[in-house]
Structure formats: structure tokens, C-alpha cells
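Researcher: We're teaching a course module on how sequence relates to structure. For the next exercise, students receive a sequence and then see the predicted structure as C-alpha cells, so they can try to spot secondary structure elements on their own. Here is the exercise chain.
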Amino acid sequence: MEQTRHPGHFDARFVRHLASLTRIYWTSPDAKRGAPLLLLCVAMELGLVYANVRLAGANGAVFNAIQGKAWPRFVDAIEHFLLVALIVVLISTYRIYFRNILQIRWRENLTAYFIDSWIGPYAYGHSQLHHEQTDNPDQRISEDIQSYVASALGLSLSLLSAVATLASFSGVLWKLSGSWPLRIGDHEYWIPGLMMWVAILYSIVSMFFTHRVGRTLVGINFDRLRFEADFRYGLVRFRDHTEAVALARGQAIERGLAMQRFHAVIANWWDLITKQRNLTVLTGGIGQANGIVPLLVAAPAFFTDRMTLGGVTETGIAYGQVSGALSWFVDAYQEIAAWRASIERLSTFRETLDETRAVVGRPDAVHVVDGRDAAIRLVALDLERPEGEPIAKGLAGDLPQGDRLAILGPPGAVKTTLFRAIAGIWPFGHGRIEIPGNARALFLARQPYLPICSLRAAISYPAETDAFGDDAIREALAVVGLDGLAARLDASDAWDQQLSGDEQQRLMFVRALLHAPDWLVMDDATAALDEATERRIYDVVASRLPTTTVVSLTNRPSVAQIHRRRFALEVGADDTARLRRE
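Model: And here is the predicted structure for the students to work with:
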């Protein structure tokens, strides 16, 4: 599998994407609850900075008391230190607690937004248009949102803390480092705010080398999420089709495909850990070296009695706080890289959803509208593939209400595409389809969909689980020959794995009998049944749903013969199609 690499630049595109994603929550109704939580988180961060300033002073007082061998002053300093330390611990704990509350509210809101956008009327069109550009929507919604929200809060609050720390400790460090010179050999140099300049210079050098070493991590993390999701999806797909693979003796091929996807994961992982190793060595070395810098600079002043031991300790603490604040970018670089990848994946997903809405909503696309009478009417209908290749041109015709209609079409894409267009999920092409206003329609495809839930819920779908009584469900099961399932109504399972193909199709007719639609439109919905069972099912539908108009799209003449009215779907060599009544 060829690996791709997203550039992941921190440019105007990144700013636009970040602002767009952030706006979703902070303009939502829940922002009224989120704003006080955010203010509380900000207050906690600033409070922690202030408490750390006080803790540094308390620490210096302890060591000054030790140096002066003043026991009463030492006891007082220890008591003060412990009180400040307790406050630091409490603030540190509750700043994380309140941040997590805001994080889960933000994630809940953003997840609901993307689920509403994805699991909606445009999902099928999106999958046809953008399945290559937006791989694994499930992972983007489940994992990328969590990563984006956690890092958005964590990075922004830690940056705020870094700025506040810099502002708070800069004055302390400037004052502490202004009373002694920098000694080099036999020469002394008096530099105002010496340690501040050392911290600034050290941080600039650190940021430069960190970005040089770690800038490829954004693209690597972008690919890591995709390769991991592809590998997992392949395994899930095999699990859902174990019988088909076993019957085809395709285990060796499936193993090869699984390992091919996994090798992409491993190749990306090696790339990631190599780059992370280099970055960790660099940042670790920077951190260790930075810890000794204040001692190297301040120790000569202590040895010449220009500083107390407490002053050296307080200088070291202040330098560490200032240097840590200035090194925020260095310390957060790996998280920023992963965050950038999550933002890109969520933003591109959202953009393609918007593009799908634009395509579906085009005035010249295929539209399903309320009709003027009781018939389904095809008006100047051109069907195309998503990329614009024609499937059928010039379809026109009326399907009258109140009868059993069969549309006999050739094998291939035309018949199924027409079925999807009537169902309102195929916008690719031109023209319109008129359906009686307020008509309740049910569409049965060749491959049934059975959610993983109780059998009762699967039968009632898409209605609520308790929409139909037990007696009605059992009676409907019996008339289609599935009375053996009546005892399992409350059992939950993956029913598409437990039931055979013909049982699944008969279960769809149980659903149709219960819902009693005005129009029942089917695309080879009885293809898995034998002819006798197929005819019996159609007879059941006719007797149980006498007012339902049945439209069957099929390529089998035997099915067409069951219906009272028949239409031929004919497509010429130039893709021109017509619906001819036989």
C-alpha cells in the first residue's frame, strides 16, 4: 500500500480550519454552560501560577533559614511552605477536574454535530463522491474529535499558563539576577536581568532545533490514523463475511490483504518512532542541560558570598519556570503535531460533507418532489455516475397508484440506479421524480439491512422498538414462514450473520406488513427466494396490503409475470432509455 504524506503546514489553512471547528461548539446553545467552565479553568490556571510564585518564595525562605541555622524561622518557613504546597495540590487537582468536565461537554456537542451531518440524507451521496478523500468517517468521529477537543483545551490552557508564568516569574528572575555579575575567568560582567536573557536565548535555540527535527510528525500522524483505521476496518469486514470467505476458500487472500494493511501500519509506525526518538533525544537533552544552566551561572555569585543559598534555590526555581514557559512550544511539539493531524482530518471531512450538500442541492440534479396526483412520475430523468458518466438518458413515464407494477430491466446499473433515484438517495444526473405528497413509502433493496439489536427492534426498524405489538409481529412472522423466530424477539444479535439470505429477505416483508406503506418499492428484494416462496410472499402482500402500490424492479421475467402491469426498461447504445408499458 502506497503511503501518503500530508504536509500539515501551520498556515492560513490551519487557522481557518481551527477557527471553523472551534466555532461549532462556541456558537452552540451549550456554550452558555461551557463558557463559565472555561472561565473557571482559566482562573485555575492563573491561580496555579500565582501559587507557584508563592511556593518558590516559601522554598527560598526554608533554605535561608537552614543557612542561618535559625530553628524558629525554619519551623515558620516549613509551616508556610506546607500551606502553600497544599493549595498548589488542590488547585492542580481541580483544574484537571473542571477541564475534563468542559472537555466531555465539548466532545459531546461536536460528536452530535458530525453524527447529524454524516448519518443523514446525504450519507449515501457522500460515500459515492468522497469515499477516497475521507477514509474511515467512523474513526474521524470517534477518535479525531476526542483528540482535537482534548488537545484544544490542553494546549490552549497550558499556553495561557506559560504566558502567565512568564509574566509572573520574569520580574522575580530579573530582580534575583540583577545583584551579581557574570564571571568568566578573571573578568566580571554586570548584565541587568542576566538569567532572563539566558532563558530567552536558550529557548530560541531550542525551538529552532525542535521544529527542524520534528516538523514531519504532522504528516506521519495524519497517515497513522488512516492506516490504523484501514487495518481495523478490514478485520471487521472479514468478521462480518466469514461465511462468504470460507465458502470461496478465500482465507489466504484475506490473510494477505490483512497483512498488507498491517505492513502499512508498521512502516508508518517505524517512521513515527524514529522521528519521535530523534525529537525525544533532542528535547530530553535540552531539558537536562537547561536544569544545570542556572547553577552554572549563579554558583560563582554564591561562592563569593554575593548570594544566599536560598537565593540560589529561588533563582533556580524562577529560571525553571521562565525557561519552561518559553519552552512551551518545545515541550508540546509532539501533541501539537497529532492535534494538527486531527484538525485536518475533521476539517476535510466537514468540507466534503458540505460539498456533498452542494451537489445534492444543485437545481439541475435529480430531485424527488411532491407530485400533483397519485402516480410516481419520471420527468426528463438523466441518470449519471458520480463522476458524470451517463447511465441512462431521457427516462420518462408514469407509475399509477393502486396496482402491482413490475419494471423489467437489463442486468447492470440502470435498474438499481433508478431504484435509488426513486428512493431519493441518487442525486447524480438531471431531472425530477414526482411522488404523491404525504405518501408513506418503504424501499426494499436486494441486500437487507438488519441493525445489531434485538430481533423485535430489527423487525420494527426504522420505527421504535415498541411500535408494534407481539401478536402482530408473531402473526407477520408466521405468514412468511418465519414463525420459528417468534421465541427470539428479545434476543440481541448480529442478525445478518445469524439468518440465511432468504430468511433476511422474508424478514423484510415482515417489516413491510407491519409498516403497511402506501408504496412498496423493491429492487430484486426476493432474489434469494425460490419461485414458490416468492409467489407466496407476493400473494401475502397482495392480501394483507390491498391498498399498497407495489413496484418491483427486476431483471427476471418470472417475477414480472406475478404483477398485473409490466413495464420494460430499455436502454439504447447511446444510453438513451425509455420506460415502455407492455
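Model: If you want an answer key for the exercise: The chain has two domains: 17-360, 367-581. Residues 1-5 have pLDDT under 50 and may be disordered.
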